[in-house]
Amino acid sequence: MTGGKHFVTDPKTLVRDSLHGLTLANPHLSFDEQQKVIFVKDLANLRKKQATLFCGGGSGHEPAHAGFVGHGMLTSAVSGHVFASPTSSQVLSCLRRVYSEEHGTLVVIKNYTGDVLNFGRAVERFKSERVNHGKPLPKVATVVVDDDVGVVNPNDDDEGGVGRRGLAGTVLVYKAAGACAAGGGSLEQVKANAEYVISHTFTIGCALNAASVPGTGLPRSLQDNEVEIGMGIHNEPGFETKELQPANVLIPSLVDHIVNSAQFKGVCSGTGRVLLMVNNLGATSSLEMGLVTKLAAEAVQARGFALDRTFTGTYMTGLAMPGVSISLLVLPEDESERNSLLALIDQPAYCPGWINKSVVADAGSTDECAKGPVIQIKPEGDPAWEKAISEAYGNVVDVESQVTHLDQLMGDGDCGQVLLSGATAIREAAQNTQLPLNDPPAALASISSIVEDAMGGTSGIIYCLFLDGLAQQLSHLNANDNSSLTPKLWGKAMLGALDTLYQYTTARPGHRTLIDALHPFAQILAETGDLSAALDAASKGAAATADMQPKRGRAVYVQQKERSADAGAVGLVAVLKGIVKSLQ
Fold it and tell me: 28 catalytic, yes or no?
């Protein structure tokens, strides 16, 4: 990678340092440094008055998301590392802190795999902990923003595929939903406004180059005479790299791409009334932004659309990416509904990323709420569990280099190392008698927490969600001690855990993921109780991925150059082999 110059003290502390600076410049904000959560200082009072809402994601998109925290928009925002989703524990802490018992809370999620999985797991954990402590299910609603029309993925199918990404249109969701909440709208009304904006907003971006990442550098470079259409806010490749045209040709072509897309046509037949947002992706000069805004507005009007509102500025960036994105929000045809939505958009919001600053009195600490309930576990050893963990760890050590090689062919090459990191952490916990191995549901829940801390990434959260579901299933089946466990019961619980996992991922058998090994193992085990047969099915499922077209994960964006099995599936089979061996 080529280098890039940045104002950095230490890349590892950059996000926290930046958030500290944000709170110093904006006295209406408070900061949970440990969880990297920004929230309004008067939160303890605010959540008694209205529905609350929060979002978050990887850092590097400033002012999104923390810059939109303030009265009239977000109540809080949680930040991950640069271009990386926050963990589910961070999101859970944020949800605990902002949750409104009386009015409920809306969770806004951008459509990226890591965000959907981590935010989804946090919501499920929040539900579980409240029910387990005798409280009713919380009033929590979620929406997923997918305004991108700049990537056409031929591998998407009727089941949804990877889907469209969440881009600058997300900020319009914050604005409409936040204003509705501030005006006393119910959680249902807040969600309805968010859903309207999501389903009627369409965005495309272009960039003159990728963005340099602090501590890493520039991942790739375009030629001086090139522009990339559809480049993502994490440096993801767009759908077309072409010769840079004059702005009066390029910008209208972006508008054409939006209004000619199937998604736009699905909600707007012919002409209509729209809102235009022109977004600076991070390193476009204000002088150029003025030109782009003028050209975009003229192009919209020239195509027969009435332009009711125009916004231009820096809303959602890709660090210092030299580029712009254009968003069109199709307004309701009904005049009354249109005026109501525009009133929400027009209502002032007191946050640094939208209009102005706001100073409010500190309403007191909410730290105790963010900690959540204290969970008491009693560590206990168990020879069978310890043997299974040890055998699984040994197998992962043996296949790490193979899994890493497979992932290098189709991904970022860290799958083997990430899996080994998780296996090592679980083995160490078992050796040090830190797990309640006499209580299967509690043991799995503890292992899930270890996996989240040790593994990270999409594979880590997939394991976590499955283990969470497995723990819940065993509790439901009253399998609270090891003597009650049988292979068939394990299989039944695993199928139930897959149902939990399937709520947050569209990956299914045949999509070339670890599901191709996990699902047949669980199914055969539930049907027959035969561990050897189940393992054979898992091995065949993993091997079959070599002939599958990737449909989920990063691999869908990478051209398959040689026949190879899915790294995640191969790694999972190694774990299953170790467990089965220990039981025979």
Answer: no
